[in-house]
Structure prediction request, 115 residues.
Amino acid sequence: MATLYTKTKLYIEANSATWDDTKVSLRNDGDGNGDYIKTWTYSFSKPTDSQIASYETAGNTAETLSGVLSKRQTEYLSWQEQLDKLYHDIDDGKLDKTGSWYTHIKAVKDANSKG
Prediction:
């Protein structure tokens, strides 16, 4: 289930705006009623519950993609190590699909597919 933050962010973006902490805030009072939009000062209307619910599928997709990209980021080598691999691949004449940089990047991407 997508978070209220993600669904609200998608609603804001669908209205050609970006998330701005000075214009929207979310809250959970811990009373069992869950998260809700506490403040809203955008020039367009605050989303209704049904409008927020309509972003469930898109929200799930966005959160899944974010998780994949985050996992990839932790598995990639540092940029310094990647540059070193590229240097050695160029020096060895392996700047193709047999080079160590390419095989590393491909392995990370294959292990963490976007779907």
